């Protein structure tokens, strides 16, 4: 193709493109190897009730742990996996491990809520999505009640009519559905009302913006819309105590973020669940005494 400038800028441009293509290919190969060698792990981030400070659920977040390159961030490999289609296989690994872990916590009496798993657009539009999910749930002997799927606006707005049908079939199984990163995509309010959602997750960008009055008003409005549509609200990326105070005033019921905990490995999360239980014990005792 044409290159008007034959100086450094063209060479630089070409070189950058090359380097990006090489890096992409490297990651694609690493992912193929990683899928074979079981290098994809699932971490869990607690979702907490803002009033009681107790655990209400958790989000499963994939971690790509390579022996040679260390941990590769989802922000880096997920977009590439989406393009290559590897996200389908990775997504199934995550779903399978999340179901396995929650089943164990359930059996051990440590947790009896839902695990939220992120579902990519590619997975969402698989014609046999629901049967694939059924198979994974059955294999792990986990009732669908314990599963929540997080989808983004981009996933459902591509073909909203079709998306509604898919969401209904998931919802009919008792699987909960959450709209992730709400407000950052291009979803329309007209559709929001029609989607069979349970939860709306307010993106971190809005939470960060609560420093200003307009930013707080924005979150206030989102929470109000969600509640008027009978949706549960989760604030994402909450890091500071003053954000908790504001969100309490705005009637947001659930928070997720570094303020409570970063995503934890399976073993770390098991410890977190045990700590939660000892925290819950005193109030149980007083309740029993009163009765
Ligand atoms: P997400 O689903 O919106 O997940 C929330 C992200 O915010 C996670 O990043 C989490 O670690 C991070 N986070 C949580 N609290 C805080 C906080 O207080 N401060 C800051 N700065 N960050 C916080 P992570 O794990 O790097 O994942 C990034 C994105 O990659 C996810 O965004 C999701 O879109 C995607 N992703 C992660 N795991 C999976 C998966 O298993 N499947 C698919 N399809 N996508 C995934
Ligand atoms: Mg998510
Ligand atoms: Mg999110
Ligand atoms: Mg996000």
From TrEMBL:
EAL domain boundaries: 24-277
Top-level taxon in the UniProt lineage: Bacteria
Protein name: Diguanylate phosphodiesterase
Taxonomic source organism: Pseudoalteromonas carrageenovora IAM 12662
């Amino acid at each position: 193709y044409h290159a008007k400038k034959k100086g450094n800028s063209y060479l630089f441009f070409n070189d950058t493109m090359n380097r990006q293509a090489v890096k992409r290919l490297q990651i694609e190969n690493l992912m193929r190897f990683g899928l074979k060698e079981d290098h994809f792990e699932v971490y869990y981030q607690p979702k907490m009730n803002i009033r009681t400070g107790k655990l209400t659920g958790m989000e499963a977040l994939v971690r790509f742990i390579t022996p040679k390159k260390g941990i590769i961030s989802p922000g880096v490999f997920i977009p590439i996996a989406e393009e290559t289609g590897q996200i389908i296989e990775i997504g199934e690994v995550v779903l399978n491990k999340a179901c396995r872990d929650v089943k164990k916590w359930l059996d051990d009496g440590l947790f009896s809520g839902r695990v939220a798993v992120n579902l990519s657009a590619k997975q969402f539009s698989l014609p046999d999505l629901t049967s694939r999910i059924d198979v994974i749930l059955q294999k792990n002997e986990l009732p669908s009640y314990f599963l929540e799927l997080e989808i983004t606006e981009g996933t459902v707005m591509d073909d909203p009519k079709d998306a509604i049908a898919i969401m209904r079939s998931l919802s009919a199984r008792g699987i909960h559905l959450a709209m992730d990163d709400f407000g950052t995509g291009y979803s329309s309010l007209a559709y929001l009302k029609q989607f069979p959602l349970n939860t709306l997750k307010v993106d971190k960008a809005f939470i960060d913006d609560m420093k200003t009055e307009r930013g707080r008003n924005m979150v206030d409005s989102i929470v109000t819309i969600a509640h008027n549509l009978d949706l549960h609200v989760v604030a994402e990326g909450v890091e500071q105590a003053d954000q908790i105070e504001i969100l309490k005033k705005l009637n947001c019921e659930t928070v997720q973020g570094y303020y409570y905990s970063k995503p934890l490995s399976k073993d770390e999360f098991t410890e977190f669940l045990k700590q939660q239980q000892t925290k819950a014990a005193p109030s149980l005792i007083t309740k029993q005494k009163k009765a």
